[in-house]
Design goal:
The chain is mainly α. 38% of the residues lie in helices and 0% in strands. It has helices at 11-22, 27-34, 38-47.
């Protein structure tokens, strides 16, 4: 336990988190350096709508995702 349980995230903490994510640091490294748990880092990143670097697929960084394919409506095609 890091001793920060329940500690509110400040604007300075948020800026530090953004900086570390932009530097592509791992969640474990960020948590260790900021004195927070990995779950706290993931949760705050989600709240701020920040994408954490994937440790499973680092080569996916920057891949543009297009719109999802629309499902065909069977009734629109005359099928039932």
């Amino acid at each position: 336990m890091t001793g920060n349980r329940g500690r509110v995230w400040s604007d300075v903490d948020d800026a530090e988190l953004r900086k570390r994510i932009d530097a592509r640091q791992t969640v474990s490294q960020i948590a260790r350096d900021m004195g927070r748990t990995q779950d706290a880092i993931r949760g705050r990143a989600a709240t701020l709508r920040l994408s954490l670097p994937s440790t499973m697929r680092p080569w996916r960084e920057g891949v543009k995702r297009g719109p999802r394919m629309q499902r065909l409506n069977p009734r629109a095609n005359g099928e039932d």
